[in-house]
Amino acid sequence: MTMALLVLFSTVSFAVSKHYCGDFLVDVAVVTQAETCGMQLQQSSKDDECSFQKSSCCTDQIKLVEGQDEVKTSVNDLDFQQQVFLASFVYTYINLFEGLEQNVIPHKNYPPPFLVKDIHILDEVFLI
Fold first, then answer.
1. Residues of the signal sequence (predicted)?
2. What whole-number distance in Å separates Cα of residue 56 and Cα of residue 42?
3. Which of 1, 31, 52, 104 has its CA 20 to 30 A from that of 77?
């Protein structure tokens, strides 16, 4: 199940669309077009006498995230060095988690020291 999901997510492509008004990020959308802020220049009728255009303060950025196209279907193409590495890795990983036979507590038989006098009160040293 996890391998199928891994293959699915590694091969999916999508687009991230961003709309900026000046230097401020207005909207971010995945797969769809980002909503605009409504400040785009309106298309005016073309006049032959006076034809100048005002630059827009809004910009759109689209980033395309592409998944991989080719999926390798067989893992039997391992050469000898890769097989040796894989076998040694599995062997050391299995033997890494061997537990202790018993829980060893080194100070189990020694009692804590007796407090005859409270040293902090005696020397009038307090933490503030």
1. 1-15
2. 10
3. 1
Instruction: Indicate the pTM of the whole model.
Output: 0.42
Alpha-carbon 70 to chain mean position: 24
Look at residues 56, 10, 12 and name the one whose alpha carbon lies nearest to residue 36: 56
Q: Between 91 and 118, name the one with better pLDDT.
A: 91
C-alpha torsion angle, residues 109, 112, 114, 118 (rounded to 10): 180
pLDDT of the residue at 87: 93
User: What size, in residues, is the chain?
Assistant: 128
What distance in Å separates the CA atoms of residue 58 and residue 24, rounded to the nearest whole number? 9
Cα(105)–Cα(102) distance, rounded to whole angstroms? Answer: 9
